[in-house]
Amino acid sequence: GVEVGPQPQGVVRADTLDKMRKIVKHGLDFVQLFNEGREFPPCTIEVFKIMEKVDYPRNKNDEVIAIIHPKLQDQDWQPLNNGDPLFLTLDGEVIAYKGDCTVYPTFINEAAYYEKKQAFVKTVKMKLTAKHIRSSVL
C-alpha cells in the first residue's frame, strides 16, 4: 500500500493524488526493470524510524489539558530540539520538548489519531544502505 498525505479525511486533493500516482509509477517501473534483469547500484537513503507515539498532556481525569503549540503545527518532518515548544496549555503555559537528541515529529495534530491518544509521533533520522541488486531469474 501507499499512503500519501496529509490530507483531511474524505477529501481528494489533486496535488496529493498526483504524488501518489508518481510514487506508484516509480514502483512499477522499478519492478519492470528488475524483472528485465537491470542491475541497480548500491545506494544510501535517509529514512525516519518511528520511536514513540506522544499523547497530549492530560489531567487525572484523562482530559486533554494542552494543544499543539503553534510553532509545532504543520512542521511534520522538521527537527525538534530540546527546549522547543511542544504544547500550549489552555492557560497559556508552554510545554517544551525535553529530549537528549533531535527528533523529527510527524502526524502532528492529525484528526485521525486524536481518539488513539496520539498528538504526534517522534521519529529519528537514519541512513540505510542497500547493496547492488539484480534479478537472478532471466
From TrEMBL:
GO terms for molecular function: hydrolase activity, acting on carbon-nitrogen (but not peptide) bonds, in linear amides. GO terms for cellular component: cytosol. Pfam families: AstE_AspA_hybrid. Residues 44-123 form the AstE/AspA barrel-sandwich hybrid domain. This is ACY2 Aspartoacylase. The lineage of its organism: Eukaryota, Metazoa, Chordata, Craniata, Vertebrata. The gene is Aspa_0.
